[in-house]
Design goal:
The protein is an alpha+beta fold and about 350 residues long. The chain is about 50% helix and about 15% strand. It holds the Pfam family Pkinase.
Length: about 350
Amino acid sequence: MKKNTTMNQVCNLSSGTIVNGKWNGENYTVIRLLGKGATGNVYLADSKKGKVALKLSENSMAITSEVNVLKRFSKVQGTSLGPSLLDVDDWKVDSQKILPFYVMEYVQGNNFLEFIQERGIVWADVLILQLLSNLEKLHQQGWVFGDLKPENLLISGPPPKIRCIDVGGTTQQGRSIKEFTEFFDRGYWGLGTRKAEPSYDLFSVAMVLINASFPKRFTKKVDVDGKTQLFERIEQHPYLLKHKQVLQKALLGKYTSALEMKTDFVHLLSVETNKAKPRTQTYKTQMATANKAKSQSPKSANSQANQTRKQAKKTKRRKKTSGILETIIIILGVFIIYSLYAYHYLM
Ligand SMILES: Nc1ncnc2c1ncn2[C@@H]1O[C@H](COP(=O)(O)OP(=O)(O)OP(=O)(O)O)[C@@H](O)[C@H]1O
């Protein structure tokens, strides 16, 4: 999208600048720039309500459209689709310049990729389930998020909670997607149209997971079709491979609702959890058998010193492996319990 240089000059506010609302009379003291978007800049600011995020733009149409989306989001019960809207006003910069702005809740936290890089890919499961719940509610209201990408997903908490920011791409179902980023756009990969429908967002969800596994985004190859290239990527990463079925269906637009995708996702996770159990039992059984055998043959152990030394080494190795395995099992257990807790608590 074309950048408006005048806007960028005016919108480059330094720390301490006071933005005064012409109509509502609220004052906001700029702390720092949070980010620059295509339509304006977002600042962290101090206000009588505490820290807030303030978006300033020369483009009053864009501000109005985003404000309308945030208002609509606030009516969707039980979700955290976007930051809550706190104020909408104009700022009289000088005698000739008036800039529209809106103030929203400051969502403190890392974006999706930063969070995953810090905590590990296993967290993607919990976050994607939350995202799918939010999308389901948004789609039910007749809207599509559009520009779904890791930068637009902030993780607040604890407990970790996914929040969609940058509502500029939110489009009414049936219309053409307003804003998109190539990597997350099914049109770019030749896997569908840019018509706003739930499957458009669900394709992007799959791409968010692919991006979480391959943080360096790749471009579409000229000589290979999009489907082949993306399916190949899925085969190359253990996390993606584990979610292959769901990802492939989402990429091919086979899900007509976020709920359907979420159900498949939950099913896949429960299958994985069940698979993990017998492996643990088998190992324990093996250990018990080995210990039993060892205690039943002390004589042969005494007469064969070499064998005993080897046995001791083996046992030491086994104990070490057992320790590592136990730690993994405990971490896995805690994670599953936490996931269930987060899942029930947040959904
Ligand atoms: N409510 C918020 N709380 C915290 N940070 C925010 C909030 N809103 C925006 N930001 C930060 O400001 C950045 C710019 O936000 P904005 O939504 O305007 O632009 P963008 O995502 O770059 O948009 P575009 O895709 O329109 O270019 C975001 O990437 C994010 O880092």
